[in-house]
């Protein structure tokens, strides 16, 4: 179900919220009426991160609520905690006593909105009851648009493969396009072979639901942006079958597609002045008589031959054909996003989105934007000496180099071979999943890197 992640309308009777940091806690309490100050001291309020103290008022209704901001170091360790604390307040309408400004203010307000998210497609969930009036000093409407796009990404990732196969992913793209007047075209099944997308067809041909390439286009700006998202709706590993423990989360293997659709929604809802193209190769990697095999060699759209040394390294194959298409009409900026390698998780864990680019200015703009919007990313290298690791000798490329080292880097190098003419390219190897509940991020699907990219695009840092 669509999520209603919005602020409340102005309300003259809203309960005031005071955000207080530890250094200013004593002065803030001293400024309160004596009885309220004594109450707060009695309850040990000291402005620690996400600490809440409701001050008694008339008829059992709080006169105000104190919320601890914690220190800057606290907020860095536990982002969105203040906004989540506000969302967890008892049912009432609240209004901040002072405007919110800057990155910290945006984090608090967005943290509140994202804390409203519930995945309730299969079971009713208890909604948050606190209603926060749109804070002054911020672009509240933009934050609502960002939260709505993040909810789309989360919903797509959280939906099981039975209800989120390649056909359903196509429907999601068409629904999104309909909301913003975008165009969608889809190439399905054996038409992929006729239109020269052999790797997408190869990976998806054994599944009951046909593979497809989804393309969404929007806008007429002079600057062009292409987003490519891995849409493997379920990954058994193919004939190199995953063990059950590794297969349990494979509904999220379309997290790259879900993330680029969420980013596309941000871009279109904001009305950014650019021409947007989204490419999603949507497949299921299944086990059947038609499944592709280890040792097979296939020719990609751009003519490069690829030896299959592991059918569980299928994401880079479907992305290869999509990136080759993107390379034929190079955009000013091309971004690929994929839940591509376990090696990335070993390197940076589930909370950081590693990315690769050869463009130092682009990397700097991304890093700065990520810090501003509390969407952590980290640059990893396209390390040229590892190029030999993806060259098997019998074919141009190896989809799964042996040795088990530098797995995320070699996957990124593999993808870069398919965009030689793209002037600016970045690849994100994301996880798209919160393994445990955290402030504003319940356990389950989550967007990574999209908010950082959107801030960079909106600020023009990529131009």
UniProtKB/TrEMBL annotation:
Domain of life: Bacteria
Any one of the GO BP annotations: proteolysis
GO molecular function ontology, one term from the record: manganese ion binding
GO CC term (a single one): cytoplasm
CDD domains in the record: Peptidase_M17
Residue ranges constituting the Cytosol aminopeptidase domain according to the UniProt record: 310-317
Cross-referenced InterPro entries: Leucine_aapep/pepB (IPR011356), Macro_dom-like (IPR043472), Peptidase_M17_C (IPR000819), Peptidase_M17_N_1 (IPR048816)
Keywords, comma-separated and alphabetical: Aminopeptidase, Hydrolase, Manganese, Protease
UniProt record similarity statement: Belongs to the peptidase M17 family.
PANTHER family, alphabetized: LEUCINE AMINOPEPTIDASE-RELATED, PEPTIDASE B
Name listed for the protein in its UniProt record: Leucyl aminopeptidase family protein
